[in-house]
Amino acid sequence: MSRMHNPSHPGASLREDILPALGLTVTEAAAQLGVSRVALSRVLNERAAISPEMALRLEAWLGVERGGRADLWLAEQTNYDLWQARQHGIPDVTPAPKIAA
């Protein structure tokens, strides 16, 4: 079974690609997004997840045509979270009973 590589946290894309491309500081981007500098900084530094609300803010801020689709930001976050969870192993569960046809 091949191992998928560790997907990046979506905050890394914002920190390394989006903000530099726009020439914005964290403070300026936070103001434009309507969030506190601390809230944005936590996402950028991978200490907080992209929430559905933040994904919608990113969509409104960047626009769909510039990679801002909320569902894509949330999918990137989910891929990151699931990969992190898998590193701890599959939880010990009792399999569900078979469903009669």
TrEMBL record:
<dbReference type="Pfam" id="PF01381">
    <property type="entry name" value="HTH_3"/>
</dbReference>
<feature type="domain" description="HTH cro/C1-type">
    <location>
        <begin position="21"/>
        <end position="69"/>
    </location>
</feature>
<protein>
    <submittedName>
        <fullName>HigA family addiction module antitoxin</fullName>
    </submittedName>
</protein>
<dbReference type="InterPro" id="IPR001387">
    <property type="entry name" value="Cro/C1-type_HTH"/>
</dbReference>
<keyword id="KW-0238">DNA-binding</keyword>
<dbReference type="InterPro" id="IPR010982">
    <property type="entry name" value="Lambda_DNA-bd_dom_sf"/>
</dbReference>
<dbReference type="InterPro" id="IPR013430">
    <property type="entry name" value="Toxin_antidote_HigA"/>
</dbReference>
